[in-house]
Amino acid sequence: MLVAIMGGKLQGVEAAYLSRQAGWKAVLVDRNRDAPAAGMCDNFIQADLMEKDKLVDLFKKVKLVIPAVENSEVLENIKECALAAGVKIIYDSAAYALSSSKIESDKLFARLDLPVPKPWSGCGFPVVIKPSGASGSENVYKINSLRDFNELTLKLGNLDSWVKQEYLRGPSYSIEVIGCKGDYQTFQITELEMDAAHDCKRVLAPAQLSTEKQDEFKSQAVKIARALNLNGIMDVEVILHDEKFKVLEIDARLPSQTPTVVYKATGINMLEVLWPGGLKRREKQEIGMTRGVVYEHIKVRSNRLIEVGGEHIMAGAGRLHILKKFFGADEAISNYDRDKTEWVATLIITGKNRQEAWLKRTAVIKNIMQEFAVEDCMDTGISNKG
C-alpha cells in the first residue's frame, strides 16, 4: 500500500516510522529536501504543500494521506486536494481547530468540568506562560516572580492572548484516543519526562500508575473525544499533581514520539488502526502492558559530552534514518555517521519490563561513551572521567 506523508518534520518522522512498521510504502512531500523524514521514506517529492495540482495528481495514486504539519491553511489545502482525489485523509479539521488553541481547549475543559491548572489570576508564582497557538513546548516560560513577569512583558509585548496558569510539579502522562461517531478506543498510557525547556526528552512505558488511575485518565480522554465529536486521532497530556490529574493540553492530530512507544510496548500500530476498517478489526481490544520501553533523544557533541534533550535536538539534524541494533539499542532514528564529530539519535530500547529496558538503556549510553571517548552524559550521572 502506498501512502502520502505531508510534511517531513518530527510528525513526519513519526508517520514514516509507523508506515514502515506497517509494511506500507511512503512518499514524502516537503519543500525542504533535507527534512528529517526524507531519509525514512521510499520516495521524496520536493514541493510546496500549497501546490494543488501536484498534490491532487499524487493523491490519486495513494491509498491514504497523512498530514504532518501544523499550519491550518496548509492543512485545509491538503484536505481539499484529498477530497478532490477521493482518498482517505487522517484529519479532523473542527477538532484540530479547537485543539490548536490552548485558550479554546481550556474553555472546553471548563465546560466538561475537568481539573486543570489554576489560571494566573487565581494562583501565585511560579506561573507557566505559553502562546495559545504554538505547538508543544515552543516558547513556554516559567515565571517565578512579578519582576520576571514584567520583564517578559517588556520582551514579548502584550500577553493578554497568552495562556497563564499555575506551575505544577509532578509526573506527566499522555494517552491517544482514536475513533469516530462516539465509538472511541484508548491506547497505552505513556510517561513523559521533560528537559529544562519543557520539551519532552524521554518517553517511558508502561506508565507507573495504578489500574484505578489508568481508568480515570482513559475516562477523561474519551470524555474529551466525545465532546469534540472526534473523527480520527487525538492525544491528551496531563500532570499528576497531589494525586490528581490536571489536563494540560490536547492535540487532534498524529502526535510524535508516543505512538512509536505504544507500538514497541504493545504491538499496536495506530496508523493501521486509523486505516479504514482498522478500528473495527480491533474493536474493544484491551491493550496489555507487554513490554517495557525507553525512548529518548541524545546528542553526541564534539567536546566529548552526551546531551539528553527534548525532541528539538532532532529537528535540525537533516535527513534521519532508521538504524537497527544501534550500540545495543533495538533501533535508533539518527543522522549518525562514523566520521561525524557531532550527531543525534532517538534511542528506542525495549525489555521484558520497564526496569530491564532502563538497564539496557544505561548499557547503550555506556557503549556510546566508550566508542567515542565521551567523558560525561548529562542528565544521567554516567561519567568516564577518571
Automatic annotation (TrEMBL):
Residues 88-279 form the ATP-grasp domain. This is ATP-grasp domain-containing protein. One of its GO terms (cellular component) is cytosol. InterPro entries: ATP-grasp, ATP-grasp_PylC-type, PreATP-grasp_dom_sf, PylC_N, Pyrrolys_PylC. GO terms for molecular function: ATP binding; ligase activity; metal ion binding. Keywords: ATP-binding, Ligase, Nucleotide-binding. NCBIfam families: pyrrolys_PylC (TIGR03909). The lineage of its organism: Bacteria, Bacillati, Bacillota, Clostridia, Eubacteriales. GO terms for biological process: pyrrolysine biosynthetic process.
